[in-house]
């Protein structure tokens, strides 16, 4: 139909950055008529081969509404609410519409990416999505079924919606212990990702809930304003102690914003360049205590846009007859808390009475059903028996006591973290020696494993959901990252199976694996540095550590009961856990493990949501490890460069 005989309903006008009408010479104004309109290369004044001849189709209605259809794999850029996103079509099926003011863009499954160089990688992400959903649902179902496997009652799944979209507003909510958190850990929810990635993930509201009598919050960075708005129930907690690592103006702001009954304490740092870096919560309830170990600072971006991990378990108060009974978890916890040296204070707890809140107070709880070991670091020059209480020597000590399947002999190691210290090959050998400890089930030593480092590339950061801004939380300078001897370790952050390729890692994990089988797995606050893990000195007679760190170690176990105690659910099972009726050996695997559990009825498979691909993919020739003090002029998904100017 000739345009002269059609009804003109409007005009497309090129926009400047401020969304004001602008004529930059490359695009003329384009008349829009009622019905079908095709927009493409022919409308350009200046030729641009990135634009196809039939790039967009616009279907307009008499009421002024417009439906925009992007043809084929053509890239588009959308500006909305001050943000600039580029979309590249990744699939033709399952077309859907996304509302944008009075218009809608019909699109296939589009991932927000900035240029066509990322298309191939993102196509793989899309192809993996169906598998990933299945894995997430299996993970949820597996860990829920364990709870009821001897009771004859299957506890309802924590997210019956799965990835179907039903009850999507509840997608993030996780029942306190229905999902077997003590035996595994959870990834934290990331905003802006597809809903299927939130299955089994946690938010801060899932953790801090119920009638908390006393809260001890340990962290490095604390944004008091965000914390109290994200978790308003904290304002009702009668007593709170915040252990932090900040100083100067940050502390003054915390003092100004904190509730009057909160106590702030920065643990002593006797050795220069140390930090209080541990991320944990100790929440005391009328029924017991919830211990939480995680990887996020108490700030908005860490709980919203990063790949993070969290473990928690609830423990009851000890019976009077058991007050002197101790176990390794309890001893490790109290030893660690003793080093923090907070000013003791006295509180009145219902049914307990007046108590002094010091490290020894935390012996009042029964940790006999603990499912992990604590691996802590505290600053100091550790000698004698203390040399094996902290840092990588603590991990070595615990692993040496363990027996592992023979498949893990000489099996590889993974170091995954978000900040790289100044390292040398001697220390890397020392560290690998600790992480390679342990015996095979035939009695032989496992032997030294070959380590790989999972670390984001510059391109990963540039294309992330935060763009280059994510790089500010991966604070490693060129001088540390670009040491020649490190080249052989670099491996890609590939998290397709959990939908977190574009959520940059702040999680820290260390593991030994063979295929999709896990010998052991550590979730920790520790980055790869001597300050965090310690360095042996004086002919290995002294371990020097600068910082406070805390992590939880998952090991294969022999169980006769499954922990079911909950501080927040009054109808939870007994304090002694759910009896299995037989002895069960646990086996650690990734979400991608495809073995046959039926072959081993006496073994329970524990799926850990390891957030990166195993085995990891080594860096390619074009891959450059991220360092935060380099200049990057290729624009990110928001049109920014790094450092953030221009």
TrEMBL record:
User: Lineage in the entry?
Assistant: Eukaryota, Viridiplantae, Streptophyta, Embryophyta, Tracheophyta
Cite the residue spans of the region called Disordered: 98-118
Which residues participate directly in catalysis? 277 (nucleophile), 506 (proton donor/acceptor)
Which positions does UniProt annotate for substrate binding?
Answer: 279, 508
Which controlled-vocabulary keywords does the entry list? DNA damage, DNA repair, Exonuclease, Hydrolase, Nuclease, Nucleus
> What CDD domains has UniProt attached to this entry?
FHA_APTX-like, PLDc_Tdp1_1
Among InterPro entries, the record links this protein to: Tdp1
The annotated site for Interaction with DNA falls at: 529
In which broad location class does this protein mainly occur, judging by the first location in its UniProt entry? nucleus
**Annotated protein name in UniProt:** Tyrosyl-DNA phosphodiesterase 1
Q: Is the keyword DNA repair in the record?
A: yes
Q: Where in the cell is it found?
A: Nucleus
GO MF terms here are: exonuclease activity
Q: Which Pfam families match?
A: Tyr-DNA_phospho (PF06087)
Q: What is one GO biological process annotated to this record?
A: DNA repair
What family is it from?
Belongs to the tyrosyl-DNA phosphodiesterase family.
What are the annotated GO cellular component locations?
A: nucleus
